[in-house]
Amino acid sequence: MTKITNILRRSVLAGGIAALGLTLAPAAFADELEGLKERGVMKIAMTGQYPPFNFVNDQNEVVGFDPAIGAEIAKRMGIEVEVVTTAWDGIIGGLLANKFDAVVGSMSITAERQKVIDFVGPYYNTKRAFFTVAGSDITTLEQLDDAVIGLTLGETHDEWARAQGYNVKTYKGLPELLMELTNGRIDVVINDSIPVLLAMKSGQYDLAEIPAPDAEKFPAGIAIRKGNPELKAAMQAALDEMMEDGTYMELANEWVGGDIR
């Protein structure tokens, strides 16, 4: 990740913005909605490493709740989607560099990110959670000072954990994080709660959640470039319609087992 100011370094914004020399001002160009409709395709980005929200299946296809939501929004706008996978720590930089049109990858809506990008949504809500292997001696948050903490590079949890002074190791995505935890290379994983709880429920991992009653909650949104009010309104209208007509719940039941709004 490119080294710039500390506040941007700690957020997912850092790498792409510094590399491109971009400012925080809204882009001074025409709304992109018309161009997307002319092309007939909207490129949506995600890591492909965040099951069940986005992951690569046995057919080498990127599937999950995120691409399903993105595809349904595009369908209602009269266009198709093309999924682009990219590393999380450079995903906002890629969006600002026009490598894709939107990020539909479970991105938390934060005030810092809203300085640079706009959000459609939220389309679900989650919270910060702490996990260790079942039977671990680590049972309280007070013990994290002496633990090795695993996180996905560039997530909001990465910034938060560093601010606490924790001993942090970063990885590309959730599957790698959980493998490292299971193999004993890290002591605790900090992540959004839902995907890890679902992995535990399915029997994939024998983990324990460390109680954190005051853990921060996060709404997840779809990121687009600033200066696109028509595109934002069209995507929001499609999302709202999905939630009202039952399509959202069909997708939520299929991929995450219930309502996560």
Automatic annotation (TrEMBL):
It comes from the Bacteria. Residues 41-259 form the Solute-binding protein family 3/N-terminal domain. Residues 1-30 form the signal peptide. Pfam families: SBP_bac_3 (PF00497). Keywords: Signal. Gene3D superfamilies: Periplasmic binding protein-like II (3.40.190.10). InterPro entries: Solute-binding_3/MltF_N, TAT_signal. This is Transporter substrate-binding domain-containing protein. It comes from Pseudorhodobacter turbinis.
